[in-house]
């Protein structure tokens, strides 16, 4: 149980640092959480990186509030966790509220990284 609790706390800490990096418009730190094999339904990691840098570079401020955070791990593949949350996004030129889902994977080195992200 202690290992499960530590794993959960580690993922929650990584998630919060990812969120803070996004709000700080620190593209390098923010994008470092996305795995090299990341994919969304319509973008590869390279396409995601290009897209997010373009969008974030047009921002003077970003606020990302998260609520209803849920973490779901499959006992058969505990290194992958589904993270679902309600996101309230505010920036100087765009606002959006909605549900987000991510898949986070714990690497062999013990670092949490995002392998999928989508709205839903």
In short:
The protein is α+β, with helices and mostly antiparallel strands and 120 residues long.
Walk me through this protein's architecture.
- This protein has helices at 2-23, 27-31, 45-57; strands at residues 62-74, 77-91, 95-106, 112-119.
- The longest helix has 22 residues, at 2-23.
- It is globular and about 40 Å long.
- It has 3 helices and 4 strands.
- It has a 4-stranded antiparallel β-sheet with strand order 1-2-3-4.
- Strand 3 and strand 4 form a beta hairpin.
- The protein has a single domain (2-119), classed as Nuclear Transport Factor 2, Chain: A (Roll).
- 33% of the residues lie in helices and 40% in strands.
- It has 120 residues and is α+β, with helices and mostly antiparallel strands.
- The model has no long low-confidence stretch (mean pLDDT 94).
* Strands side by side in the biggest sheet: 1-2-3-4
Q: Catalogue the unreliable spans.
A: none
The Rg value, from CA coordinates, equals 14 Å
The domain count comes to: 1
How many distinct helices? 3
| DSSP strand tally | 4
Descriptive tags:
4 strands, 120 residues, four-stranded antiparallel β-sheet, Nuclear Transport Factor 2, Chain: A
């Amino acid at each position: 149980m202690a290992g499960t609790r530590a794993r959960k706390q580690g993922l929650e800490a990584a998630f919060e640092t990812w969120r803070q990096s996004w709000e700080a418009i620190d593209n390098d730190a923010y994008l470092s959480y996305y795995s090299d094999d990341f994919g969304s339904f319509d973008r590869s990691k390279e396409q995601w990186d290009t897209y997010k840098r373009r969008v974030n570079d047009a921002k003077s401020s970003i606020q990302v509030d998260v609520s209803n955070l849920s973490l779901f791990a499959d006992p058969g593949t505990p290194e992958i966790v589904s993270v679902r949350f309600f996101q309230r996004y505010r920036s100087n030129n765009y606002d959006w509220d909605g549900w987000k889902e991510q898949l986070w994977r714990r690497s062999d080195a013990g670092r949490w990284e995002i392998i999928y992200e989508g709205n839903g």
